[in-house]
Amino acid sequence: MIQCTKRHLGCYIGETTQQLNIRMNMHRHSIKHHKVELYCTPVGHHLTQSGHSMKDLKIKVRAFQHGFSSSDCSRNVYIKKNGFTLHRNPIAQSTDGARTKIGFSEGRHAWEVWWEGPLGTVAVIGIATKRAPMQCQGYVALLGSDDQSWGWNLVDNNLLHNGEVNGSFPQCNNAPKYQIGERIRVILDMEDKTLAFERGYEFLGVAFRGLPKACLYPAVSAVYGNTEVTLVYLGKPLDG
C-alpha cells in the first residue's frame, strides 16, 4: 500500500492511499450536506439559482456556519431549519435568548439582526460571553443583565450592561423607534474593543467601549410569544 512521505495534492505525511480515500469521501459528504441544508433555506435557494456566483454561495455558507446555535439557547426557543431564525415559544413570564455558534476574540465583524414579529416589552440585541445566561424568569433585558453581556433594548432605546442602564441610544433627540422588519447592522471591533450599530446606511455610533479581551458571541433576547428574530453574519465591515 502506497504511503505519503510529504504533503502533496491534499495527501498528509504518513497517510496511506486508503486513509486518503476515506478522508476525501468524508469531506465530499460534508460539502454535500452543507449544500443541501443551504439549498433548503429561502436565501440559499435564491443564491443557488442562475446569476449567482460561487463567491455568493461561499458567503452564504459562511453565514450559515455563523448562525444561531440550537444547543446554546433557551429551552423556550428553537432555531428554524434555515439556521438564521430564532422562534420563541409562547411561554409566560420568561425571557429567552440565543447565541451564535461562533464567537470572536479578534478582528472586526459585522452582522444584521431583525425582528420578524412583535417586540413585546423587551427586545435586546448585542453580544455575550459563554458565561452569560440565555434564560431567566420574568420579562427583563436579559442581555446586559450582568457583566457577561452588552445589549441595546430596541423597545426603549436603552443601552444595558452589568444590570445597569448605560444611557440612551442613539444619542440624539427624538430617536426613531424600531420598526418590525428593519435591519440593524451590528459592528464588533475586537481591536478597538468597541460595539457599534447602523440602521440602513446610517451609522448610529459606538454604543460600548472597553470590551474585555474575551470570546464574544452575537446574541439576542426576546419575550414575545411566537415572535421570530433573524441574524445573518456579514463578515468584515465594508469600511475596511
TrEMBL record:
Pfam family, one: SPRY
Keyword Iron-sulfur: no
Any one biological process term the GO annotation gives: synapse assembly involved in innervation
Alphabetic keyword roster: Ubl conjugation pathway
Domain B30.2/SPRY: 46-238
A Gene Ontology term for the protein's cellular component: SCF ubiquitin ligase complex
Pathway: Protein modification; protein ubiquitination
Keyword Disulfide bond in record: no
Family label: Belongs to the FBXO45/Fsn family.
Quaternary state and interactors: Probable component of a E3 ubiquitin ligase complex.
Protein name: F-box/SPRY domain-containing protein 1
Protein's organism: Pelobates cultripes (Western spadefoot toad)
